[in-house]
Amino acid sequence: MAAVEAQVLALFALHGPRYRWLATITVMLGTMSVVLASTIINVAIPTIMVEFQLAQDQVHWLATGFLAAMTVGMLLNAWCAQRFGARGAYLLAMGLFIAVSLVGAVSDQFPLLVAARVGQGLLAGLIQPLAMITIFQVFPYNRRGQAMGIYGLGVVLGPAIAPAIGGVLVDTLSWRAVFLVVLPACVVGMAMAWRYLPGKDREAPPLRLDTGGVLLLAVGMTAVLWGLANGHRRGWVDPLLLAALPGGLITMVLFVLWQRHTRQPLMDLRVFRYPGFTGSFLMSMVIGAGVFASTYVTPLYFQQVLGESAASAGLMLMPAGLAMAFTFPVAGHLTDRFSETRIMLAGLLLFALNMVLMAGASLTTSAVWLVWWTLLGRVGLDLMMPPSSTGALGLLPPWLIPQGSGIFNFARQIGGALGVNLCALCIQFFSDRYGQTDPAATLAQAFEFGFDRAFWLLLIVFLLALWPLHAMRQGLLKERCL
User: Fold this and answer.
1) Is the pTM of this model over 0.85?
2) pLDDT (0 to 100) of residue 141
């Protein structure tokens, strides 16, 4: 019997049948804390822009840096969990998460603030996968679906309430409070982890960290995202920019080649040999762009175009967030009954309709309509998420499902980082252009022009996603005919 299994049995003997729920609550506290931290800052962006005198193509690093670092953290999770055990990895990650959150709360320089967000993202990537590992350890096979459903609902509720909580904190206290609000839950989670999570498996063979892969991925992503973000500000012929973009792309190609030849890669690229998985990978990127970019852009639109306060913007987003939370289990149920790609197509069209409506809105559009349109888009994204993951993993043989799951999540995070980056650049570029061509225009009118183009950008991305969705469908049909 493996050492971890023995520890889990000992914890069951000590705490009884309720142990599995105590362990689930423990990992939920950690995951909800980091998920809340990932989105709660979005309603504080306009206030931070004013305090640090930033433009859209600068301040977006608070979201982009978090998402990009989270991608690296997720890929490091397997090594960290094997090296320190579930309890040690959780305590280490949560302790460091508290530390970098405190740094963010007291930052008086924007680079330090971005560094704190990058640290939060890296640690969030380490924490989130621990939840699935723990649930699989403490629940029998026939009850894991129930546990994942309850856990998933809790995770989705975090982003649903984050804008409202963040808005109230910004208006009544300070933007710095959004870094502190999750810390009590982190402390409680650490106390519970010390008691309820199993320790290191000392019988497992050591897992070597792919240091070369980590460095290539981090350098490549940073160079590409930095190059895209600074094109408008520095000019696309800037020597440093001309070095960063091609250099970043070359580094990413080297990362792929490294993963193909190293013994213990961060990503097992054999999953791409299976028909349809490339399509599912691209769909995951598109969904990530939709989820994270719309979550970033919409509260800014409410504040910078409509002139709403942070609290009002957060409350306007709450119905959409709650709708997304409660649509999640429905989408999972539909996935068991209907074709994954048909459900995804319905969600894609709903989100595309949301983008058309938002791009067509004006300064005189009723806030009630904007709330309903945002809700429509969130439901569309929710319809896409469960079938996309189920369909992607259904394309793979059982022995490749863990690797496929990691690569699928990697795609979603990368898509989110690119989506936020490009939308922020789009808003700044077209807002500046509108102000230059019409000097009499108000700031709200200039911002509206920029935001409209960002909504059109997301619309185009989702319409182009019809091709990878078709490729995914063909792969599923071929798999089920075998």
Assistant:
1) no
2) 57
Q: Which three-class secondary structure state does DSSP give residue 114? A: helix
Q: What is the DSSP code (8-state) at residue 178?
A: G
Q: Is 480 exposed, middle or buried (0-12, 13-18, 19+ CB in 10 A)?
A: exposed
Closest CA relative to residue 454, chosen from 297, 266, 248: 297
DSSP per-residue string spanning 427-439: HHHHHHHHHHH-T
Per-residue pLDDT tens digits for 139-175: 775 565 556 666 666 666 666 677 888 888 888 888 8
How far is the first Cα of the chain from the last one, in angstroms, to the nearest whole number? 36
Query: 420-455 in b/e burial notation, b at 16+ Cβ within 10 A?
Result: bbbbbbbbbbbbbebbeeeeebeeebbbbbbbbbbb
Residue 60 identity (one-letter amino acid): H
Q: Is the dihedral of CA 285, 290, 292, 293 positive or negative?
A: positive
Specify whether the CB–CB gap between 45 and 62 falls below 8 A: yes
> Which secondary-structure segment (H or E) carries 118?
helix 110-138
Give the SS3 label for residue 87: helix
Please provide residue 363's backbone torsions phi and psi, each rounded to the nearest 5 degrees. Answer: -65, -20
What would the two tokens of residue 171 be? Answer: 């208006």
Please state, in angstroms and rounded to a whole number, the distance separating the CA atoms of residues 314 and 298: 10
d(CA 458, CA 455): 5
Per-residue confidence (pLDDT) for residue 188, from 0 to 100:
92
Biggest CA pair distance of the chain: 75
What CA–CA distance (Å, rounded) separates 481 from 20? 39
Eight-class DSSP state of 176 = G
Enumerate residue ranges in the chain where pLDDT < 50.
1
Q: What is the tens place of the pLDDT at every residue in 383-411?
A: 888 788 777 777 888 777 767 777 887 88
Helices 367-394 and 310-337 cross at an angle (nearest 10°) of 40
- Closest among 39, 10, 15 to 297, alpha carbons compared: 39
d(CA 430, CA 448) in angstroms, rounded, equals: 9
Measure the CA–CA gap between 248 and 270, rounded to whole angstroms: 24
Tokens of 434: 């509108």
d(CA 104, CA 265): 33
Residues with Cβ within 8 Å of 191's Cβ and at least 6 positions away in sequence, in order, are none
The CA-based angle 338-344-350, given to 5 degrees, is 120
98 SS3 class: helix
Per the document, the length of the chain is 482
Residue owning tokens 């320190």: 84
One-letter amino acid identity for 204?
A
Query: Residue 272 burial (CB < 10 Å; 0-12/13-18/19+)?
Result: middle
**Residue keyed to tokens 């102000």:** 435
- The DSSP call for residue 395 is T
Contact 388, 288 (CB under 8 A): no
Task: Give CA–CA dist 259/268, Å, rounded.
Answer: 7
